[in-house]
Amino acid sequence: MKIKAAVIQIGSVPFDASATVEKVGEHVRAASAQGAELVVLPEALVSAYPKGVDFGARVGGRLPEGRDAFLRYFDSAIDVPGTHTDRLAEICREARVHMVIGVIERDGGTLYCTVLFFSPEEGLLGKHRKLMPTAMERLIWGFGDGSTLPVFETEIGRLGSVICWENYMPMLRMAMYGKGIQLYCAPTADDSDGWTASMRHIAREGRCFVFSTCQYITRAAFPADYIPIQGNDPETVLMRGGSVIVNPLGEILAGPVYGEEATLIAEVDMDDIARGKYDFDVVGHYSRPDIFSLIVDEEPKFPVIGRE
Question: For the CN hydrolase domain, which residue ranges apply (predicted)?
């Protein structure tokens, strides 16, 4: 089976979830018109990845303006499910595509960096919450647990996602390989030169197709009172992209592209997965369960457990 897949490298309309969702719709429809059956969009696209700001945090203290910045971020996050996920499901249904997209999810008083999965027939399939926010991300995002580590059986293949530097967690990768992931989606905010090498390694390791996409966005997209460490020149690039599609032997099918919004489309031959596993199946003939094993706790964790 062959399918066409797209990675869509665009930026948010920062702190405006509804406008961002409509921008997503425009680009998804354009990718669909080129034959895409799967579209993958960046980490934290709805409503923003707040690159370069510190939310007023100091060791032992927080500034009042940082609390206001968090309030704006909190107010622009989305409920899952909710009106914004309904609209994204409608976009997928109209465009006849499967979608993987990064959002900021609001749950109670906490925000999560979350990836949502949609199909054209069923709408919202589920979500993955980032297990380990990186560095300063831990100030503004909560930690996911093992209950949102899905790999979905879809008509185009087994679909899952690992977010940004989660991809450097070997046991998480192994858990996804164990679930038989074929379409490995890696939304990210890492636009460094080394990221593509990591994506190529993961594709070779897991013998899967890897779809990674990062935002392209400049300072001009953000509000006037947004002061990133990179500088306040409107033309300053806060994220430069680097989206890429890789096959199960680690060969690049499309990208990486930097310095512009872009949609990359590649035809992927699902039989290449079996061709790749001929000589390396990390959870099959190339594993040693007599020596190594991995236990994954996929039960949800709650801070308060009521007793009747």
Answer: 3-270
Q: Which band of pLDDT confidence, cut at 50, 70 and 90, is reported for residue 265?
A: very high
Q: Is 307 part of a structural domain of the chain?
A: no
Catalytic residue flag (residue 4):
no
pLDDT band at 222, cuts 50/70/90?
very high
Hey, what are 297's tokens?
A: 């706790």
3-state SS assignment for residue 206: helix
DSSP string, 85-96: HHHHHHHHHHHT
Choosing from 51, 127, 130, 277, the catalytic residue is: 130
**By residue range, what is the domain housing residue 252?**
2-279
268 in Cβ contact with 38 (< 8 Å): no
Amino acid of residue 253? L
> Could you say which of 92, 105, 127, 164 is catalytic?
164
Tell me whether residue 137 is in a domain: yes
Give tens-digit pLDDT for 55-68.
999 999 999 999 99
The model scores a pTM over 0.85:
yes
Q: How far apart are CA 219 and CA 55, in angstroms?
A: 17
Domain count for the chain: 1
Q: Is the pLDDT of residue 197 over 70?
A: yes
Catalytic residue flag (residue 130) = yes
User: Which entry of 37, 43, 105, 166 is annotated as an active-site residue?
Assistant: 43
For tokens 């939310």, the residue is: 55
* Per-residue model confidence as pLDDT tens digits over 248-259: 999 999 999 999
